[in-house]
Every structure is written in C-alpha cells, then in structure tokens.
Amino acid sequence: xxxxxxxxxxxxxxxxxxxxxxxxxxxxxxxxxxxxxxxxxxxxxxxxxxxxxxxxxxxxxxxxxxxxxxxxxxxxxxxxxxxxxxxxxxxxxxxxxxxxxxxxxxxxxxxxxxxxxxxxxxxxxxxxxxxxxxxxxxxxxxxxxxxxxxxxxxxxxxxxxxxxxxxxxxxxxxxxxxxxxxxxxxxxxxxxxxxxxxxxxxxxxxxxxxxxxxxxxxxxxxxxxxxxxxxxxxxxxxxxxxxxxxxxxxxxxxxxxxxxxxxxxxxxxxxxxxxxxxxxxxxxxxxxxxxxxxxxxxxxxxxxxxxxxxxxxxxxxxxxxxxxxxxxxxxxxxxxxxxx
Length: 340
Prior knowledge:
By secondary structure, this protein is an alpha/beta fold. The protein has helices at 6-25, 31-38, 48-55, 86-95, 131-138, 142-149, 154-157, 173-183, 188-191, 202-220, 245-253, 279-289, 300-305, 307-318; strands spanning 76-80, 100-101, 162-164, 194-199, 235-236, 241-242, 295-299. The chain has a 5-stranded parallel β-sheet, with helices on both faces. Strand 5 (235-236) and strand 6 (241-242) form a beta hairpin. The longest helix is centred in the N-terminal third of the chain and has 20 residues, at 6-25. The chain starts with 5 loop residues before the first helix and ends in a 22-residue tail after the last helix.
C-alpha cells in the first residue's frame, strides 16, 4: 500500500482555497505583495519628521492633551496577521527601537506585554467599546509616559511610541475607531495613530496556523482528554484525534472563506469569525475608517528575502533611527517538534 504525499492529500483543498479567494475578490495572486510594495509610504515620500509630528506633538506624551482624562492610548498598533512575523517585529521594536509595550496585569500571561487582546474580546467578557472601558485599556500604557517623566525633556516626551501588537485586531477596525473616538470625539487622536500589518501568502499562512494549533493541541492532550480554546480547531472530535491539514482545510478554512462584515461595536458584541486571508476586504474596511497614510502594509515575503528593506520601511514609517536596521530580527514562535 502506497503512502500518499502531503501534496496529494492537501493539494485539492489548497487549490480550491486559492480559487475561492481569487474569484471572490477578482484579484491577481500578487495583489497583497503589489499593495505592500507599491502602495505603502516609503522613505522618499514619507519622511521620519512627518511621521513623528503625526504620532505625537509637544502637547504631551501619547497625545494626552487630546484625550479625555489624559488617557494614554497606544499610538502604534501592529494589527496582524497571525503567523506572519508580528512577534519578531514587536520584539525588535521593543528591544532595538525602544518602543513601549503593554503592562501585564496580575494573573495575565506574559505575552500580554505584546498582545493586550482588548479589541478581540469575546461576547460575555464584559467589554464595551466606550470611554469607561477605553480608560481601562489606556492604563496598560500609562507607564510609557511615567517612565519618561524623570527625563524632563519635552522632545523625548512628545516622541514616545507605545504599541499593542495583537494580531487579531486586524478583524476589528470599527472597535478600534470607536475606542479612539470615545477618548477624543474630535477625531484628532485617531488621526495620529499608526497601524502596521504584515501580510503573508494566504495558503502558507493557513498551514502555519494549523501547525501552531496542532502543536498547542498536543501540549493540551498531555493533561486533558480533548483540545480546548483555539487549538480545538485542529481537533477531530468524531475521530478523537488531531485533524490532518486536509481535514482542517475542509472543516475550518473553507467553511469561513466568505467575507463577514464587522458588526457595529456600539450595538452588539459579536466575535467576527472569518478567514484571515481575505486581505482585500479587510484592508478596505481599515481604509474607510482611517487615512491610507496611517497604514503601513508589509509583506512577510520581503521580511524573509530582504530584511533590511523591510525594516527600513518600518523605520521610515515610525520615524525611528535608521541605523537600528543593522540589528536583525530574531525568529520566535518556531514550532519544531517533528510533527510538521
């Protein structure tokens, strides 16, 4: 009996996913990379000075002068996508670029320093995207300003960068806009925020996410009879085992392939479950709510093939020191347990 190769098993589902993705959006396969390379601000057209002035102003750290009760919302959001290098970039921005991250609250896991998970709350978690809840979120970044007060320099205070790098935020642009507008109804604070998104070829991203879920599922099975939370996506409850990738594609990916509009966060709190690879529709939502110049679209392919160019885009967009590009990114979240 011959053993089927991975391509023989997963091939039909992969091809179907590509076909549905492209036909649903009438796009060429190179859409995401064309957008990131040709429609993003570059160092020649978007100077560091312009970006720094928009991120902050002499009025105060994290634009507190614009916010009610001097709330300290982050001025940089790394919104996605999952399995495209967000952890590596956020670590680099923190360790090399000096970007301030969220303060982990008692009882929270350490990764909440990178990912505050405010905008991707599930129904029943007590979130409402109004000013009262925005103040609680803002407290995570108050230390970013407090830590600088001792320097007593306006130039430093006005250029503080604070970042939330929760990749699930990509699905919730309305929640983000509602939060910023609740803190500053004039909309000026929202205009000064910066958003970074790293895109990855959809099928390879889906395979990487499956490997991540399967890895976490195996860890859970050491102490539990089944997989819970997001790793359950890789669990076949009927067969009582981890799904193969082809089963995952059929049961999870292809059932969520259609675009789902984000609900109004002021009317209902529903989790938006859809495939993260529908980049075109998701980016249109962000551009409808924020100015295009506030959004930097990057490519994971460029990160792998030309890290220097990738980091130069980030430096120019955030107004960082160009020389820090000499410090390389470190790979994180690599799952090498022999089951890929």
